[in-house]
Design a protein that fits this description.
Elements lengths: L5 H9 L40 H14 L3 E4 L2 H12 L5 E5 L4 H11 L5 E5 L14 E5 L11 H11 L2 E5 L4 H4 L9 E5 L13 E5 L2 H14 L5 H11 L2 H19 L7 E3 L9 H7 L6 E5 L3 H10 L4 E2 L9 E4 L11 E5 L5 H12 L3
Parallel strand pairs: 2-3, 2-4, 4-5, 5-6, 10-11
Antiparallel strand pairs: 1-7, 6-7, 8-9, 9-12, 11-12
Helix pairs in contact: 1-2, 2-8, 3-4, 3-7
């Protein structure tokens, strides 16, 4: 575990712009919808053309960099961030190791665009990634806890073995946010995040970012954005900046509630099994306690079958049937409907910001009717 203090980081985040205390500066970050900037003479200065830089992106990246304790490049979605890393850091003939049980679109990206262009793509379950054979592997991509089955990879062990083998390590930290888990502090080279989830947290924006303390790895990512034009919108960037201000409050509420709800679900006759990194029954509970500050806001619930799971998602007051996670509303998503390799009755519950007791009461009331 690192000596990072999430509370201190949240305070730093709120005051990240205090280096500029000029009289009259707006306390909120302005939206600058510029595609071009006044540019006399030879090109010089930080702002020249809108595909390269923008003051609103800079403010959001600075806020994210305060949390990551690393420089950040922002993207219009989590997948745009992941694509920037995999496309700019892996070349034809190189070997890429992906989790077999992580977010499925990352595997689609590899299948549809990397394999056909000559990248050798291999897969490994998240829970055995830290012991995987890394001979001749150029880049290892890990997601922990993995979405949707919440398997965990030992980041320190993976980073040590990959570094010794000469492989670059990338961690998708979407399920935990920088307040819940610190892959870079465990020796991982690059972090990617879908800020569409808890980081923005209000289910109104797609966004993503890449963070790394190694300029040789972050520069190709920045160049990828500039050349391919995968640029975030000004307004979306501003919304993420605004959402970030309450990340610590939201994340702690969601994780507190998820711990309580997961433990109360255990043994309830309406459910077959419960999956959450904070439960004694989680196979990697000790690793979770060592490497994560919180257990996260996701709870896997297995119901008897798809119909029972659907009935729970449709009926429970304060639970909305939808996909995605990390927003203020509690969301239930039956993952088999998307083709994930989970039982038909497996629901990924994203615990929201509703006060815990009314939320639990609504869940329990519905469970009792199933
Ligand atoms: C949602 C998600 C993504 C993709 O993010 P988008 O913002 O939807 O492009 C990537 N990784 C994980 C773990 C996710 O949950």
């Amino acid at each position: 575990m690192t000596d990072f203090d999430p509370d201190r980081a949240a305070a730093e985040l709120l005051h990240h712009a205090d280096h500029d205390l000029a009289a009259g500066r707006p306390l909120s970050s302005p939206i600058v919808p510029a595609s071009l900037y006044v540019l006399p003479g030879d090109p010089a200065g930080p702002y020249q053309y809108g595909r390269w830089t923008n003051p609103t992106w800079d403010a959001t990246e600075h806020a994210l960099a305060t949390l990551e304790e690393a420089p950040v490049v922002s993207f219009p979605s989590g997948m745009a961030a992941i694509a920037s890393v995999l496309c700019s850091l892996v070349r034809s003939g190189q070997r890429l190791l992906l989790p077999s049980d992580g977010y499925y679109t990352t595997r689609l990206l590899a299948d549809q665009y990397l394999r056909p262009n000559g990248v050798v793509v291999e897969e490994c379950p998240t829970s055995s990634m830290a012991e995987a054979d890394l001979v001749d592997v150029d880049l290892v991509f890990v997601e922990t806890p993995s979405n949707p089955t919440l398997q965990i990879c030992d980041l320190t062990a993976l980073a040590e073995r990959a570094t010794a083998a000469g492989a670059v390590t990338v961690a998708d930290n979407t399920t935990m946010t920088p307040l819940g888990q610190r892959p870079l502090d465990h020796g991982i080279d690059v972090v990617v995040s879908s800020d569409t989830k808890a980081v923005n947290g209000h289910s109104d924006v797609l966004f993503g970012h890449v963070a790394s303390r190694n300029p040789a790895l972050l520069e190709p990512v920045r160049e990828w954005r500039k050349v391919t034009g995968a640029v975030p919108g000004h307004f979306e960037s501003w919304l993420v900046h605004r959402g970030l201000e309450t990340l610590e409050l939201r994340f702690n509420r969601m994780c507190d509630s998820a711990d309580i709800i997961a433990s109360r679900l255990v043994g309830h006759r309406g459910v077959c099994s419960v999956n959450h990194p904070g439960l004694d029954s989680h196979p990697q509970r000790d690793l979770a306690a060592r490497q994560m500050f919180r257990h996260g806001l996701l709870v896997g619930i297995e119901f008897a079958d798809a119909a029972t799971a659907n009935s729970f998602a449709d009926k429970a007051r304060f639970v909305t049937p939808a996909t995605s996670f990390g927003g203020t509303h509690t969301i239930a998503d039956r993952r088999a409907r998307w083709g994930d390799e989970v039982p038909g009755g497996y629901i990924r519950l994203s615990v929201g910001c509703e006060p815990t007791e009314p939320l639990w009461a609504a869940i329990e009331e519905t469970l009792n009717t199933l």
